[in-house]
Amino acid sequence: MSDAISRGETKSTGGTTIRPEEAAHFGRLARDWWDAKGPMASLHQVNPVRLQFIRDAIDMHWASDIEAAAPLRGKSALDIGCGAGLLCEPLARLGGDVTGVDASTENVGVASAHAESSGLDIRYMAGELASLQLGQFDLVTCLEVIEHVSDKAAFLRDVAASLKPDGLLVMSTPNRTAASKLLLVEAAERVGYVPRGTHDWDDFVTPDELAGLLADAGLAMGEPRGIAWRPGKSLHLSSDMSLNYIVTARFA
């Protein structure tokens, strides 16, 4: 890939990375998104694990007081692929000026209504990230999204264009392994833990592949952490990345 550009000079592609069928799939789930026992239960279960990683990354990146209730106060945050706002709302409670973007208008509608009912001021927008021209943010999050886009390299260039030169990016995605194919796709969808049609294993990205894609967008990837499960401990951060992993990135 030869589109790498220097720090602070990342350009949006202006192209289309949304797959309409993916947006429609998640849009059909919008009204049940906040039901912790519904079809999106898996996201409710993994959210505290992801938030633990994000909070630690925020404290490290900005040398925050680990006891501070609002480490994002005075900072802007963008959640790409925000769904119905499961991450946006905690980021707002951490003090961030939060914007959520999603491909599905149905998700954005549910997210907006839920934030309002919770007394949170969050801006939600639907559409292609590049076309929205939102500017740059201190924190950009993009969790379980890259495996659903049509052009991963172009998408990450758009993500990089949304990040301030000294900003922090956090991403998570399933790993492409034999274990993830068996457990995240075949078993999870068969038993209803994940809605059918959610994942295409061939679209999963390995940590090495993600590091290369991020480098081509001018970003340096940090050390990835696995999100693993085991009896008695449930979902947790781990060195085991066979199913899913979460990682930070910054401008190189």
From TrEMBL:
Enzyme class at the top of the EC tree: transferase
UniProt region (Disordered), positions on chain: 1-21
InterPro entries, alphabetized: SAM-dependent_MTases_sf, UbiG_MeTrfase
SUPFAM superfamilies per UniProt: S-adenosyl-L-methionine-dependent methyltransferases
Keywords from the named record: Methyltransferase, S-adenosyl-L-methionine, Transferase, Ubiquinone, Ubiquinone biosynthesis
Protein name according to UniProt: Ubiquinone biosynthesis O-methyltransferase
GO molecular function: 2-polyprenyl-6-hydroxyphenol methylase activity; 3-demethylubiquinol 3-O-methyltransferase activity; polyprenyldihydroxybenzoate methyltransferase activity
Keyword S-adenosyl-L-methionine: yes
NCBIfam families (UniProt xref): UbiG
Role noted for this protein: O-methyltransferase that catalyzes the 2 O-methylation steps in the ubiquinone biosynthetic pathway.
UniProt cross-references to Pfam families, sorted A to Z: Methyltransf_23 (PF13489)
Binding site for S-adenosyl-L-methionine: 50, 81, 102, 143
Transmembrane segments: none
EC number of the protein: 2.1.1.222, 2.1.1.64
Compositionally biased intervals (Basic and acidic residues): 1-10
Pathway where this protein functions: Cofactor biosynthesis; ubiquinone biosynthesis
